[in-house]
Design a protein that fits this description.
heterodimer; A: 0% strand; B: alpha/beta; five-stranded parallel beta sheet; globular
């Protein structure tokens, strides 16, 4: 097991370094998130009650779409420059390669987007006491987005202009994450006691994705490499 | 150590590239695959590397680590250099060294061997095609693997770099390593045997 740890963290570190040096991917995701969420109150009008009611949903949906923007290239660049072939001959199983890249995606995109959400929550009149829970659901839910998204990214790796295909593939898989994330915040806002169960299911979805999605992504990668 | 391929066949896009292909390479020997374009040289290397399964037949490495797949005991140098253009040469090399489990001390030796020492802090995107190729080849020195699979390794290399490559390969062979290379140009590998693909009867 320890023999896997070094290549695993090397790959995570390299992807973080690339995300930092190339910068554009995160910039696009954050920019998209800010633009979508700020446009919405402008287009809906100044109904503060309406805004605060739809805030959790808007913040979650926009976060998902922003994350999808960067997921498409997760494996594509490594495939195009031949790195993926070399990784396939490395000591790390492809499932661990997929897991490392998903983890790096979460750290470099999921976390910054989550960090931005409370700021954007202010724009949508999300009650201050709901911010903590919103942040918690996003911290718990975004790993599922990155890890599940990696499956779609692996499947569409060789398709040109695969953004739409990726979105269509991922939509059904993201629905549980989305609905339980929003349900937890919504329930707390309305004073219902279903907030905790929804949150725990969200955590369960995330944990299951972290374990299972890399296996599916590895199978897709292997098929695509042939 | 001995690499054997038995009765291999490969189908690409519904077309049979080759069938009944057999070869064996002993430790310290090189096998040079030759033949016209599209005859399946790259496919043979990819099958040995475990990147694609053969339609029939099998690959075996006797005397290697029994638990480890053949693919993880080889260096695969394909058409692409596996380089990140926004990382420096050193960062690229350091990543592959760590990922492939190379000894940290070999990093300098690898860059030095392929004449990249002076360029180590430059982003790889500024390199010429030949320099990128050298950086790709530096993986051979970064981590130790008994079997080297080289697909047109001399592409875009100048004559000095070709000499370096031949030297590195011959050193590897002298240490008991194995090399399977697909090439159109004679590279002067020691103890090399040629396997000409597509020479047999039937449609190429």
């Amino acid at each position: 097991m320890t023999a896997f740890m070094k290549p695993f963290w090397q790959l995570v570190w390299r992807d973080l370094l690339l995300a930092w040096k190339e910068g554009g991917t995160l910039g696009v995701a954050l920019g998209f998130y800010v633009v979508v969420v700020t446009m919405l109150p402008l287009s809906l009008g100044p109904d503060l009650n309406l805004l605060s009611r739809i805030a959790p949903g808007v913040l979650w949906v926009a976060l998902l779409l922003a994350a999808l923007l960067s997921l498409g290239r997760l494996f594509e660049t490594d495939y195009e420059d031949g790195s993926l072939e070399v990784m396939a001959t490395g000591p790390l199983p492809l499932a661990a390669v997929a897991a490392a890249k998903s983890l790096a995606h979460w750290l470099s995109t999921g976390l910054p987007l989550t960090g931005l959400a409370p700021l954007l929550g202010l724009l949508l009149n999300l009650p201050l006491e709901a911010h903590g829970l919103l942040l918690a659901t996003m911290l718990a839910g975004t790993p599922a987005v990155s890890f599940l998204g990696a499956v779609g990214a692996a499947l569409t790796m060789r398709a040109r202009r695969s953004g739409l295909l990726l979105a269509l593939l991922m939509l059904p898989l993201f629905v549980p994450t989305l609905s339980f994330g929003i349900a937890a915040v919504g329930a707390a806002q309305m004073g219902l006691d279903t907030a905790l169960p929804s949150f725990l299911i969200l955590v369960a979805i995330s944990l299951a994705s972290v374990v299972l999605a890399p296996l599916a992504a590895a199978a897709a990668l292997r098929a695509q490499l042939e | 150590m001995r690499l054997t391929g038995n009765n291999l066949s490969a189908v690409r896009g519904g077309r049979t590239l080759f069938s009944g292909l057999g070869f064996s390479v002993d430790g310290g020997a090189a096998l040079v695959l030759t033949g016209p374009n599209g005859v399946g040289k790259t496919t043979v290397l990819r099958i040995v590397a475990g990147l694609m399964p053969p339609a029939a037949g099998r690959i075996a490495l006797e005397g290697g680590a029994a638990e480890t797949p053949v693919g993880e005991q080889c260096h695969y140098i394909g058409h692409l250099a596996a380089i990140k253009t926004s990382l420096s040469i050193e960062e690229n090399a350091r990543f592959w060294s760590g990922f492939l489990g190379g000894a940290p001390g070999r990093l300098d030796a690898a860059l030095d061997t392929f004449g990249l020492e002076a360029l180590r802090d430059i982003p790889a995107g500024y390199l010429s095609a030949g320099q990128k190729r050298r950086l790709g080849l530096a993986r051979l020195v970064l981590a130790e693997r008994p079997l080297w699979l080289l697909d047109e390794p001399a592409t875009s290399l100048d004559s000095a770099a070709q000499g370096i490559l031949t030297g590195v390969v011959n050193e590897h062979l002298a240490a008991g390593g194995m090399v399977v290379a697909a090439t159109h140009t004679a590279l002067g590998f020691a103890n090399a045997r040629e396997l000409r693909l597509g020479a047999g009867p039937g449609p190429a």
